[in-house]
Amino acid sequence: RGSQAAAPWGRLPALLLMALAACAARASEITFELPDNAKQCFYEEIAQGTKCTLEFQVITGGHYDVDCRLEDPDGNVLYKEMKKQYDSFTFTASRNGTYKFCFSNEFSTFTHKTVYFDFQVGEDPPLFPSENRVTALTQMESACVSIHEALKSVIDYQTHFRLREAQGRSRAEDLNTRVAYWSIGEAIILLVVSIGQVFLLKSFFSDKRTTTTRVGS
């Protein structure tokens, strides 16, 4: 009995890895640089009836905003938002074909952005398919499903925390740069004012010679 109980638990890591691999194959996560006055588009082949989710967030740059647009194979606009910092959109493909989604920074003239997006196509396949199954999940299989769902939640939380940490670091660095420039400006102004006061006080105590000219008749 001991060997029979140990074998399924030994297959547990393999099952979880296979599930995570299948999950990763159905999603695209990319972080890219979007220059100022530029536009970047991505394309995805999607089958009809497939449920998809697009989630994006601007990590660094300017006011942390970007334009986003999603089109179906016929060019119909499914989603369009202007100057958004982050957002999420879920849709079901109405037909087979190539779907296009673009991020635009054309409204910015000198600030480039760093954008992260996660495009998920389809839903995660179940760990244990229910077809041709006449019995309920065993305790071990239920534990596998629970661990799998918990790991997916952990991955999502880690991703969002990394994005928030990167955005917070960018804001802190930007604030530090502004404070440094402001301090340098104040130092220059104080130096100029001090020199001006020295010359002004010196002019008060300097001797002024008056020349008198007598005009004789």
| Overall residue-averaged pLDDT value | 79
Instruction: Give the biggest beta sheet.
Output: 4 strands, antiparallel
What's the β-strand tally?
A: 8
CATH class of the largest domain: Mainly Beta
> Count of DSSP helices?
3
Description:
By secondary structure, the chain is of the alpha+beta class. 41% of the residues lie in helices and 29% in strands. It has helices spanning 2-10, 12-25, 139-205; strands at 27-34, 39-46, 51-60, 66-71, 77-84, 86-92, 97-104, 113-121. The strands form 2 sheets. It has a 4-stranded antiparallel sheet with strand order 1-8-3-6. It has a 4-stranded antiparallel sheet with strand order 2-7-4-5, with no helix packed on it. α2 crosses α3. It is elongated and about 105 Å long. Residues 1-25 have low confidence and may be disordered. One of its GO terms (cellular component) is endoplasmic reticulum membrane. It comes from Galbula dea. It holds the Pfam family EMP24_GP25L.
Topology summary:
Layout: H1 2-10, H2 12-25, E1 27-34, E2 39-46, E3 51-60, E4 66-71, E5 77-84, E6 86-92, E7 97-104, E8 113-121, H3 139-205
Antiparallel strand pairs: 1-8, 2-7, 3-6, 3-8, 4-5, 4-7
Summarize this structure briefly.
41% of the residues lie in helices and 29% in strands. It contains three helices and eight strands, in the order ααββββββββα.
